[in-house]
Design goal:
Layout: E1 7-8, E2 11-16, E3 22-28, E4 31-37, E5 48-50, E6 54-58, E7 60-65, H1 73-76, H2 83-94, H3 99-115, E8 118-126, H4 135-146, E9 152-158, H5 165-173, E10 178-179, H6 189-203, E11 206-211, H7 221-228, E12 235-239, H8 248-261, E13 264-267, H9 269-275, H10 291-296, E14 301-303, H11 320-329, H12 335-342, H13 344-349, E15 365-369, H14 373-379, E16 384-388, E17 391-396, H15 407-415
């Protein structure tokens, strides 16, 4: 039986680390206090979880979400298509959406994320069309307060090219954390990049820009890197699909500039695989940023799911293991690299303290029923325990019944040649 949640946990017993080592883990409030050989904490007092048969990982962090758009696909029923068609479809819907609708969908989406092991989320928030541009920020600020103590939620502005600075600045009074925007979609992408970075400097917050979300066209990351080289403010960029289409010599120069400016790059495989390449019916490009080159160059890299069941992505499970799977299959990362990008790497880009099953780290942990870390990605078992700051905040126990042949019958059939 699952206990009432949240519940402070003192020990985790019999878990397996990503490298296969069986361990017990002692927690001291929100911090991992000790990692011991399996069995070392048997019989000790306190609240303990038995994790025999589970792999213990750093909890997922979703570095790029759109909670104000989530779960609208079935209502909008948009045509399947590329980025411009998705933008148009959602804009039509957003005119009719209100604060209550946004909060309800965000709440349901965060609940799914938490159940699957995500304990930190950064969401971009559109300025609503019509007379109430700040409805999304009020809704998500309220939802953030409701989820306080269960997960960390950061909010990023996502203005249109005609959003005036005064309204943009009001979003920070309502609790927005970072300046965002998609300057590559504006009439003058370089001037738009400067405008957004000027605002971030003036307000004194960092920037997390949608950058170069297309297979061709303008590149704004170079300007971002030039401006951010002297920054002490947080800085990151999501999508960056254009990097994946550059010549190797061009890519090397841009990656070096990104590294020197210490811009965190956020890859978003599921949405970019869906949105990009519609006009290339053969040899369709993958639509993912140049993750291998970025990782090998020492750039801080994260990965997320981006949109969940909206015109920008009709699918999505709110599951960091889904993102990890796509990183392995579509981006050719190793399973260990994929888990890093959705866990430790994502937390780094979000500016959060280190977490996971390491002494001294924050006890944000995900336990998944699996024999290995790779199996956890492959099968993504629903059996999971999720801890945030040392408290159990989600537990899922799967009961499964499958009619399978009895082993004895299979052997008999094989021996008689009937199989």
């Amino acid at each position: 039986m699952i206990p009432a949640l949240p519940l402070r946990i003192d020990a985790l017993r019999g878990a397996r680390l990503a490298d296969g080592t069986p361990v017990d883990v002692r927690l001291d409030g929100p911090v991992v206090a000790a990692i011991e050989p399996a069995g070392a904490l048997d019989g000790e007092p306190g609240e303990a979880l038995d994790l025999d048969g589970f792999v213990l990982l750093t909890a997922g962090a979703e570095p790029h979400a759109h909670l104000d758009k989530a779960l609208t696909f079935d209502v909008i029923a948009p045509p399947l298509g590329d980025l411009p068609s998705a933008i148009a479809a959602f804009h039509t819907y957003a005119i009719t959406s209100d604060e209550h609708d946004i909060a309800d969908r965000a709440r349901r989406t965060l609940g799914r994320m938490l159940a699957n092991g995500i304990t930190a989320v950064r969401s971009h928030v559109n300025f609503s069309p019509g007379p109430d541009p700040l409805a999304g920020f009020r809704a998500l600020q309220r939802v953030r307060a409701e989820f306080a103590g269960l997960l960390d939620l950061q909010l990023v502005t996502l203005p249109a090219d005609d959003t005036v600075d005064e309204v943009h600045e009001e979003a920070f009074a309502l609790g927005a954390d970072l300046v965002g925007g998609a300057p590559h979609l504006w009439p003058d992408p370089i001037a738009a990049t400067d405008r957004l970075l000027d605002l971030a400097e003036r307000v004194g917050v960092g920037a997390d820009l949608h950058a170069d979300e297309s297979l061709d066209g303008p590149i704004t990351l170079g300007r971002f890197a030039e401006r951010a080289r002297s920054w002490s403010l947080p800085r990151s960029a999501g999508h960056c699909v254009r990097l994946g289409m550059l010549r190797e010599d061009e890519l090397a120069v841009l990656v070096e500039a990104i590294r020197d400016a210490d811009i965190g790059i956020i890859g978003l495989p599921i949405t970019n695989l869906y949105l990009q390449g519609w006009d290339s019916p053969v040899a369709t490009p993958r639509g993912i940023t140049a993750l291998r080159a970025l990782i090998d160059a020492g750039v801080r890299v994260a990965a997320g799911a981006d949109n969940v069941r909206d015109p920008f992505n009709p699918l999505g499970r709110c599951d960091p293991l889904e993102t990890a799977m796509l990183l392995v299959t579509a981006a050719h990362l190793t399973p260990a690299e994929a888990l890093h990008l959705v866990g430790d790497g994502a937390r780094d880009v979000l500016g959060l303290p280190p977490a996971g099953p390491r002494v001294g780290a924050v006890a944000d942990l995900l336990a998944v029923r699996a024999d290995s870390a790779t199996e956890a990605i492959a099968f993504a078992s629903a059996d999971r325990y999720v801890l945030h700051a040392g408290r159990l905040v989600a537990a899922s126990v799967l009961e499964q019944r499958v009619a399978v042949p009895a082993r004895e019958a299979v052997l008999t059939a094989t021996e008689t040649g009937a199989a």
